[in-house]
Amino acid sequence: xxxxxxxxxxxxxxxxxxxxxxxxxxxxxxxxxxxxxxxxxxxxxxxxxxxxxxxxxxxxxxxxxxxxxxxxxxxxxxxxxxxxxxxxxxxxxxxxxxxxxxxxxxxxxxxxxxxxxxxxxxxxxxxxxxxxxxxxxxxxxxxxxxxxxxxxxxxxxxxxxxxxxxxxxxxxxxxxxxxxxxxxxxxxxxxxxxxxxxxxxxxxxxxxxxxxxxxxxxxxxxxxxxxxxxxxxxxxxxxxxxxxxxxxxxxxxxxxxxxxxxxxxxxxxxxxxxxxxxxxxxxxxxxxxxxxxxxxxxxxxxxxxxxxxxxxxxxxxxxxxxxxxxxxxxxxxxxxxxxxxxxxxxxxxxxxxxxxxxxxxxxxxxxxxxxxxxxxxxxxxxxxxxxxxxxxxxxxxxxxxxxxxxxxxxxxxxxxxxxxxxxxxxxxxxxxxxxxxxxxxxxxxxxxxxxxxxxxxxxxxxxxxxxxxxxxxxxxxxxxxxxxxxxxxxxxxxxxxxxxxxxxxxxxxxxxxxxxxxxxxxxxxxxxxxxxxxxxxxxxxxxxxxxxxxxxxxxxxxxxxxxxxxxxxxxxxxxxxxxxxxxxxxxxxxxxxxxxxxxxxxxxxxxxxxxxxxxxxxxxxxxxxxxxxxxxxxxxxxxxxxxxxxxxxxxxxxxxxxxxxxxxxxxxxxxxxxxxxxxxxxxxxxxxxxx
Length: 691
Ligand code: DMJ
What we know:
Ca(2+) binds at residue 664. This protein is mainly alpha-helical. It has a domain at 227-670: Glycosyltransferase, CATH 1.50.10.10. The chain has 24 helices and 21 strands. A hairpin with a 5-residue loop joins strand 6 (357-359) and strand 7 (365-366). Helix 20 crosses helix 21 (578-590). The structure holds 1-deoxymannojirimycin.
């Protein structure tokens, strides 16, 4: 006997197929240059299944990389455009497209939650010129099929944010669940509560609008994320108002901050550093202003600036590379190459270890006078690999990779005292300078780039992973300690003496240890994870032991105190990101809610102490109830601090860690073989084959 269900089945199947076709068409509209979505989905499914099968195996990883390489060449003919990059927002990420297209395996709760699938969305942004509701006949802004109104996908994230920010006049979803009223933060700035309040006036959750929450038990924390976005707008708008085109903003004096690490030229450091964050947050208008400035004004030609090779690489080259990966806009690739070329004279040393500073006009290069007898600095020359390797791949010019590979070989072959890397190396003699070792200032990101070079290569650069493991095992043995009260910290080591002090800068290493554990299962992974969690916890302690709830520049461990700065010159906070970076990585890897809550605590503290009417400042002493502000809005506040906080409250599919690897300035770079935005330059055919 056949029940009524039997007859309903074919109808449902037909409806499902029709809906799928419609969604594919809509997707096609949003992806300019005729990107073949199903190819992308298939490619990604293939990558995912290969990844699962390979599970860290070197040979399998290489096969996987080769396979994807082949398919890239087809995709590259389509020259991916900006609109593709809306994938980086949750709503249009291929994983969600897969779900929407019905190609993903549904999870048990998902089927039930999707029953009322006739979603009717009436949406209008207050900022739009005429009516408050977009018409379903207006194909440029919405699509309507059989009573189902669908917004073009690239706008879905913005729509959800608009909903949360109170810019939406109406959204109606049949049978919508009531919105849960967010608990107003007790110490939040007024703006935070305003944002939260706006969210309670809607009749549907933004999760429903985006259609992703059902699939994501650890989904988006909308009100928190919307608040971080609003912080970014505040930082950016004030920079634009008072310091546009200059490097950084002085919020108290409402003028540019010049003469910092960027030298005295106007290089628009905040624009280049902060632009990918704007992009990720969907701040399209601001993003375009920044992009236009870079196109028209950014150049290192005809100026005689003395640039830091390291800072220029991580912020300018790194920033442009990410924007290139995101958008496929060749302007960014050209600018990245232009900047990197200006740095190349610094590599003309007997060892190939570059100097720290280079003059953009003369090419004259030198080291800092204070750095151990003319030495170069480990964290500086050791933090070029990701950007230079990627630049070679997208330009087809092997020179950049060769430069950093030379550095790698020197560091691989040199004898390391107790397996550790001192912070100073003389570029002329190839000998170590002072035997100071640190996972904080002067050492930090070298270790980060070992692991990340391996990740960036699609886990094929085994040399990098081995060097990472060797270094971190030595560090765990010789420098990681546990305080009498159980706090894990990484001490500095000077010759044979431990200095029981940890820099704020070293707080990134919580995430680094954890990432090392999560990406390769071996006899060390449990210990890595334990140390990673321990360090992150200690950095959080350094924050909450200060009345401002913000952490000092360095903190010590002694009989007198734990995780507290003891010297006056260590008590400042300059809007640094490292602790939030570790919260973000640990959140992604563990989904332990405490990391999000710690991040939110920090947001509230930033709002209370660092926010001014004209941007954000650092603090001179985190141990004072009402600390003095330092009048500098660091470019890394926009590049890193706000980005990591935004991502902490985002869904995992926004810049997933198996597809993107963050450079040390939080500029995400695509992972080879796993990310369709790698955009490797086509390999030129030898002349004989060209016909
Ligand atoms: C950033 O420029 C980078 O994270 C760098 O690696 C270290 N310091 C700052 C932020 O604190």
